[in-house]
Protein backbone atom coordinates (compact mmCIF):
# COMPACT_ATOMS: atom_id res chain seq x y z
CA UNK A 1 0.00 0.00 0.00
CA UNK A 2 2.77 2.40 0.95
CA UNK A 3 4.75 1.41 -2.15
CA UNK A 4 1.68 2.05 -4.30
CA UNK A 5 1.20 5.52 -2.84
CA UNK A 6 4.89 6.31 -3.35
CA UNK A 7 4.76 5.16 -6.97
CA UNK A 8 1.61 7.25 -7.47
CA UNK A 9 3.50 10.28 -6.12
CA UNK A 10 6.35 9.52 -8.53
CA UNK A 11 3.87 9.40 -11.40
CA UNK A 12 2.50 12.79 -10.28
CA UNK A 13 5.99 14.26 -10.35
CA UNK A 14 6.56 12.84 -13.83
CA UNK A 15 3.28 14.42 -15.00
CA UNK A 16 4.43 17.75 -13.57
CA UNK A 17 7.79 17.46 -15.35
CA UNK A 18 6.02 16.66 -18.64
CA UNK A 19 3.82 19.75 -18.28
CA UNK A 20 6.89 21.85 -17.53
CA UNK A 21 8.64 20.44 -20.61
CA UNK A 22 5.70 21.81 -22.65
CA UNK A 23 6.47 25.25 -21.19
CA UNK A 24 10.19 24.82 -21.91
CA UNK A 25 9.52 23.99 -25.56
CA UNK A 26 6.78 26.49 -26.49
CA UNK A 27 7.53 29.22 -23.93
CA UNK A 28 7.12 32.61 -25.61
CA UNK A 29 10.19 34.21 -24.02
CA UNK A 30 13.51 33.10 -22.60
CA UNK A 31 12.67 33.79 -18.91
CA UNK A 32 9.71 31.41 -19.27
CA UNK A 33 12.07 28.65 -20.29
CA UNK A 34 14.50 29.50 -17.48
CA UNK A 35 11.73 29.39 -14.85
CA UNK A 36 10.44 26.09 -16.22
CA UNK A 37 13.96 24.59 -16.20
CA UNK A 38 14.46 25.71 -12.60
CA UNK A 39 11.17 24.08 -11.60
CA UNK A 40 12.14 20.88 -13.46
CA UNK A 41 15.36 20.73 -11.43
CA UNK A 42 13.47 21.24 -8.19
CA UNK A 43 10.97 18.50 -9.13
CA UNK A 44 13.79 16.12 -10.00
CA UNK A 45 15.13 16.60 -6.46
CA UNK A 46 11.91 15.31 -4.96
CA UNK A 47 11.68 12.52 -7.54
CA UNK A 48 15.14 11.36 -6.46
CA UNK A 49 14.01 11.44 -2.83
CA UNK A 50 11.01 9.23 -3.67
CA UNK A 51 13.19 6.82 -5.67
CA UNK A 52 15.58 6.48 -2.75
CA UNK A 53 12.61 5.71 -0.46
CA UNK A 54 11.23 3.08 -2.86
CA UNK A 55 14.59 1.39 -3.35
CA UNK A 56 15.29 1.83 0.42
CA UNK A 57 18.82 3.04 -0.15
CA UNK A 58 20.67 6.10 1.08
CA UNK A 59 23.07 6.31 -1.84
CA UNK A 60 21.03 8.86 -3.80
CA UNK A 61 20.87 11.48 -1.08
CA UNK A 62 24.07 13.16 -2.25
CA UNK A 63 22.48 13.60 -5.67
CA UNK A 64 19.76 15.74 -4.04
CA UNK A 65 22.32 18.25 -2.80
CA UNK A 66 24.28 18.25 -6.05
CA UNK A 67 21.16 18.72 -8.17
CA UNK A 68 19.89 21.54 -5.95
CA UNK A 69 23.17 23.41 -6.24
CA UNK A 70 23.36 22.84 -10.01
CA UNK A 71 19.77 24.01 -10.58
CA UNK A 72 20.40 27.18 -8.57
CA UNK A 73 23.66 28.05 -10.31
CA UNK A 74 22.13 27.31 -13.72
CA UNK A 75 19.23 29.64 -13.01
CA UNK A 76 21.58 32.39 -11.89
CA UNK A 77 23.63 31.97 -15.07
CA UNK A 78 20.50 32.04 -17.25
CA UNK A 79 19.23 35.21 -15.61
CA UNK A 80 22.60 36.93 -16.03
CA UNK A 81 22.71 35.91 -19.68
CA UNK A 82 19.15 37.09 -20.31
CA UNK A 83 19.72 40.41 -18.60
CA UNK A 84 22.79 41.23 -20.70
CA UNK A 85 22.27 39.19 -23.88
CA UNK A 86 18.92 40.65 -24.87
CA UNK A 87 20.41 44.14 -24.90
CA UNK A 88 22.84 42.96 -27.55
CA UNK A 89 19.97 41.39 -29.51
CA UNK A 90 18.00 44.63 -29.33
CA UNK A 91 20.89 46.55 -30.82
CA UNK A 92 21.04 44.04 -33.64
CA UNK A 93 17.30 44.47 -34.32
CA UNK A 94 17.13 48.25 -34.39
CA UNK B 1 6.14 -0.30 16.94
CA UNK B 2 2.78 1.29 16.31
CA UNK B 3 4.42 4.73 16.55
CA UNK B 4 6.93 3.80 13.85
CA UNK B 5 4.09 2.64 11.60
CA UNK B 6 2.21 5.89 12.15
CA UNK B 7 5.35 7.91 11.40
CA UNK B 8 5.87 5.99 8.15
CA UNK B 9 2.29 6.70 7.11
CA UNK B 10 2.77 10.40 7.94
CA UNK B 11 5.88 10.40 5.73
CA UNK B 12 4.06 8.74 2.84
CA UNK B 13 1.13 11.15 3.09
CA UNK B 14 3.55 14.10 3.14
CA UNK B 15 5.18 12.81 -0.05
CA UNK B 16 1.77 12.41 -1.70
CA UNK B 17 0.73 15.96 -0.69
CA UNK B 18 3.99 17.29 -2.11
CA UNK B 19 3.43 15.56 -5.43
CA UNK B 20 -0.13 16.89 -5.71
CA UNK B 21 1.06 20.44 -4.97
CA UNK B 22 3.75 20.00 -7.62
CA UNK B 23 1.16 19.04 -10.24
CA UNK B 24 -0.93 22.09 -9.27
CA UNK B 25 2.17 24.27 -9.66
CA UNK B 26 2.84 22.82 -13.11
CA UNK B 27 -0.76 23.56 -14.15
CA UNK B 28 -0.23 27.12 -12.94
CA UNK B 29 2.87 27.38 -15.10
CA UNK B 30 0.87 26.22 -18.10
CA UNK B 31 -2.26 28.33 -17.59
CA UNK B 32 -1.10 31.72 -16.32
CA UNK B 33 -0.73 34.52 -18.88
CA UNK B 34 2.77 36.04 -18.58
CA UNK B 35 6.21 35.54 -17.04
CA UNK B 36 5.63 37.33 -13.76
CA UNK B 37 2.49 35.43 -12.79
CA UNK B 38 4.16 32.21 -13.95
CA UNK B 39 7.10 32.86 -11.64
CA UNK B 40 4.54 33.34 -8.86
CA UNK B 41 3.25 29.83 -9.57
CA UNK B 42 6.69 28.34 -10.08
CA UNK B 43 8.62 29.51 -7.05
CA UNK B 44 6.16 29.44 -4.15
CA UNK B 45 4.13 26.30 -4.63
CA UNK B 46 7.00 24.33 -6.11
CA UNK B 47 9.14 25.18 -3.08
CA UNK B 48 6.34 24.01 -0.80
CA UNK B 49 6.05 20.77 -2.78
CA UNK B 50 9.76 20.00 -2.57
CA UNK B 51 9.92 20.83 1.11
CA UNK B 52 6.97 18.55 1.88
CA UNK B 53 8.50 15.74 -0.17
CA UNK B 54 11.96 16.00 1.37
CA UNK B 55 10.46 16.25 4.86
CA UNK B 56 8.51 13.09 4.10
CA UNK B 57 11.68 11.34 2.98
CA UNK B 58 13.46 12.51 6.13
CA UNK B 59 10.69 11.23 8.42
CA UNK B 60 10.57 7.94 6.51
CA UNK B 61 14.29 7.26 6.86
CA UNK B 62 14.17 8.36 10.48
CA UNK B 63 11.33 6.01 11.42
CA UNK B 64 12.16 3.08 9.14
CA UNK B 65 15.93 2.86 9.56
CA UNK B 66 16.58 5.07 12.57
CA UNK B 67 18.82 7.15 10.33
CA UNK B 68 18.89 10.93 10.75
CA UNK B 69 19.96 12.22 7.37
CA UNK B 70 21.89 15.47 7.56
CA UNK B 71 21.94 15.65 3.77
CA UNK B 72 18.15 15.81 3.52
CA UNK B 73 18.02 18.62 6.10
CA UNK B 74 20.70 20.46 4.13
CA UNK B 75 18.67 19.94 0.95
CA UNK B 76 15.53 21.35 2.60
CA UNK B 77 17.41 24.41 3.87
CA UNK B 78 19.11 24.94 0.53
CA UNK B 79 15.88 24.78 -1.48
CA UNK B 80 14.19 27.04 1.05
CA UNK B 81 16.93 29.66 0.67
CA UNK B 82 17.65 29.52 -3.05
CA UNK B 83 14.23 29.18 -4.72
CA UNK B 84 13.00 32.73 -3.89
CA UNK B 85 16.37 34.19 -4.91
CA UNK B 86 16.23 32.41 -8.26
CA UNK B 87 12.64 33.53 -8.89
CA UNK B 88 13.50 37.13 -8.05
CA UNK B 89 16.53 37.13 -10.35
CA UNK B 90 14.58 35.65 -13.26
CA UNK B 91 11.80 38.23 -12.82
CA UNK B 92 14.37 41.03 -12.66
CA UNK B 93 16.05 39.81 -15.84
CA UNK B 94 12.67 39.44 -17.56
CA UNK B 95 11.62 42.98 -16.68
CA UNK B 96 14.96 44.48 -17.64
CA UNK B 97 14.93 42.68 -20.97
CA UNK B 98 11.44 44.13 -21.57
CA UNK B 99 9.31 41.04 -21.64
CA UNK B 100 5.78 42.48 -21.96
CA UNK B 101 3.19 42.17 -19.19
CA UNK B 102 -0.13 40.47 -19.80
CA UNK B 103 -2.73 42.54 -21.62
CA UNK B 104 -5.15 42.85 -18.70
CA UNK B 105 -2.58 43.71 -16.03
CA UNK B 106 -3.38 46.89 -14.20
CA UNK B 107 -0.51 49.35 -14.11
CA UNK B 108 3.25 49.40 -14.44
CA UNK B 109 4.81 51.79 -11.95
CA UNK B 110 8.37 50.61 -12.50
CA UNK B 111 8.37 51.49 -16.19
CA UNK B 112 8.63 55.27 -15.85
CA UNK B 113 11.31 54.92 -13.15
CA UNK B 114 13.46 52.31 -14.83
CA UNK B 115 13.25 52.93 -18.56
CA UNK B 116 13.28 56.74 -18.70
CA UNK B 117 16.62 56.87 -16.92
CA UNK B 118 19.79 54.85 -16.96
CA UNK B 119 18.83 51.74 -18.89
CA UNK B 120 17.50 53.64 -21.92
CA UNK B 121 20.60 55.84 -21.88
CA UNK B 122 22.92 52.83 -21.74
CA UNK B 123 21.10 51.10 -24.60
CA UNK B 124 21.42 54.26 -26.69
CA UNK B 125 25.10 54.41 -25.81
CA UNK B 126 25.68 50.81 -26.81
CA UNK B 127 23.78 51.37 -30.07
CA UNK B 128 25.98 54.34 -30.88
CA UNK B 129 29.12 52.42 -29.93
CA UNK B 130 28.17 49.54 -32.20
CA UNK B 131 27.39 51.91 -35.06
CA UNK B 132 30.77 53.59 -34.68
CA UNK B 133 32.47 50.20 -34.62
CA UNK B 134 30.62 49.24 -37.79
CA UNK B 135 31.71 52.44 -39.47
CA UNK B 136 35.31 51.76 -38.59
UniProtKB/TrEMBL annotation, chain A:
Cellular compartment(s): Cell membrane
One Pfam family in the UniProt entry: MrpF_PhaF
Chief location of this protein within or outside the cell: membrane
Recorded topology in the membrane: Multi-pass membrane protein
Keywords on record: Antiport, Cell membrane, Ion transport, Membrane, Transmembrane, Transmembrane helix, Transport
Transmembrane segments: 6-25, 37-57, 63-82
Family: Belongs to the CPA3 antiporters (TC 2.A.63) subunit F family.
Name of this chain's protein: Multisubunit sodium/proton antiporter MrpF subunit
UniProtKB/TrEMBL annotation, chain B:
Domain of life: Bacteria
Segments crossing the lipid bilayer: 6-30, 42-62, 68-91
A Pfam family matched in the record: PhaG_MnhG_YufB
Keyword Ribonucleoprotein: no
Topology class, membrane: Multi-pass membrane protein
InterPro entries membership: PhaG_MnhG_YufB
Chief place where the protein resides: membrane
Record's keyword terms, sorted: Antiport, Membrane, Transmembrane, Transmembrane helix, Transport
Compartments, record wording: Membrane
Recorded GO MF terms: sodium:proton antiporter activity
Cellular component, GO annotation: membrane
Record family assignment: Belongs to the CPA3 antiporters (TC 2.A.63) subunit G family.
Name of the protein this chain belongs to: Multisubunit sodium/proton antiporter MrpG subunit
Organism encoding this protein: Ureibacillus chungkukjangi
